[in-house]
User: Fold these one by one.
Assistant:
Number 1:
Amino acid sequence: MTSPNDSSPRTYPDGSDAFPHHNLLDIAGLQPWEIEYLLDEAEQWVDLNRQSSKHDDRLAGLTVINAFFENSTRTLLSFEIAGKRLGADVVNMHAAQSSIKKGETLIDTAVTLNAMRADAIVIRHGSSGAVQLIADKVDCPVLNAGDGSHEHPTQALLDGLTIRRRKGNISGQTVTICGDILHSRVARSNIICLRTLGAIVRVVGPPSLLPAAIKELDVEVYTDFDAALKGCDVAMMLRLQNERMQGQFIPSPTEYHHLYGLTEERLEKAGGDILVMHPGPMNRGVEIVSSIADDPERSTITEQVEMGVAMRMACLDILTRRSRNVEGWT
Ligand code: NCD
């Protein structure tokens, strides 16, 4: 496959030359070369974002609506910055101040957003499948910024970009994902993305926080964190998603930290050169200790945030090419 920087147009195995997806709703629907292409395209935006002038006007005149029905810091801000750096008019809709609070249905909200002739809509919603529901009702591309415990595709892409830049490639890396796998859309999207690109994925957490059907995602399942860490290349730490828990899943945060917290002793015992990741927001002293989280050599936490802006610029650019009449891959 050619690199996007080559002057020759990029073609799919089926002979087409355009990114064949209207929306970005999940990683599960993407082919490995489509994921690689998204990562390749993000590289140019990493470079631009490191310059003092960070503007490219390719989305000038377009309107991007960020409709967030759930709280967010990183994802909302980075989609907003991404759209603005590409020259789009970006508006944020906060559910707390919207007509949702007045009883409007999700479909009526979607129809309303559509009537405003947005050119891309970015949606975060607390229910799995809600983003698909809206995508079915609007004409423009829809990007999933996280739907319930289903998927968070741009998070997996930015995590993939971070791993690829730090480790050189994704294929062949062993990635241990630790924590609340049951409720985490980040875990799900990352598992699918990493497996699609040829990484070995281990998941580890208390049995109560591992989905019953997790083996179907072709991962190695552990409940012993030390065993799961041994020999891995990357440790991806996840927050306990308390807001999605009904009932008691763990005895206490202290007990959880004792068994599944990433500490200096644990990392040392595991040996090797383990790269530590976390999508944020993190609960210091629960799933990770500060000395690891704040060490830029071992931890990529702020780098992941940086990659998030570049990755979202790539996604907005690629998905609006049809409406901008830009042909092909580049
Ligand atoms: C994650 C999310 O919202 O799913 N955060 C993020 O997007 N950076 C993870 C989380 O909330 O724990």
Number 2:
Amino acid sequence: MRAIAEAPSKVILTGEHFVVHGAWALAAALPRKVRVEVSESSHLRVISDRPSSSKTQGLHPILSVVEAIGREFSFAPHLSVTISSEIPEGAGLGSSSSTMVAVSAAISRIHSLGFKASDIIRFSMVGEKEVHGHPSGIDAAACVIGGVILFKSGNAPKKLSFKGRRSVLVAISGMKRSTRRLIRSVEGVKEIYPSLFMGLTEAASEVSLMAADRLAAGDMEGLGRLLSFNHAALSTIGTSNRTLNGLVDLALSLGAYGAKLTGAGGGGSIVAVAPEGKEKSIIWGLRRRGFDAFRADIPVSGVRSWLE
Ligand code: MEV
């Protein structure tokens, strides 16, 4: 018998980085996913098709998640864990959180632990902290809960309800970066300009609440304006660069309502929203310039697991 879990990727629509410092942020689960298969074994073994796994540190955070669950529920973590991922790494789309979430959910399923969403998030965070330093938890929450969530540290995530579907455009810059390093550099900015940083954090929080409202209402033009506003704040704290600014400008010049970097920045991806009739031509325009770009329809369901 084996347990399978599939967790979606994610995109941060507004509020990244500021969420680490207490702001509300808005995130959506995306269709590309990680699949994890877990079965009983004579010892703990993790096999992954993720390129980073060949590096020494690559599998360690995953082993830590498995061992943390084993310790708390008093079982020897003798499991075979196989990971296959459709999510590009280092692209700001939640490849690591999606993996930790799927691993936690699959172990809960194989050992009948009955994990609730909050348990899956808690155990995923063991691995996420190893990878990113001190992340807010928004990535794991988005992959567990699915749909679109408003997230603020210390509060239960709020799932947005809305009728119908919305779509977002994502373009991957191709530049990999370290979330851990960017979180640290933003902390440095906060130390140098504490009051300015506090003002930006409050603004980002307000932007996220307004963006949730616009998205739920289906006002993509209004949402786009807020994305662009948020990009300016993220540039101010040093998380953008010429490539990302160029990608944002390109999306806007091709007709997007608004665009911004998404996730940690410094590389990774941008997210944009556009008038319905223009989405295809924007994607082609981005691809013609050599960027991997795609449209994703939301909402998408959160992590699912089952036995086979
Ligand atoms: C990364 O997807 C989002 C950050 O805000 C870090 C975090 O909240 O954990 C940069």
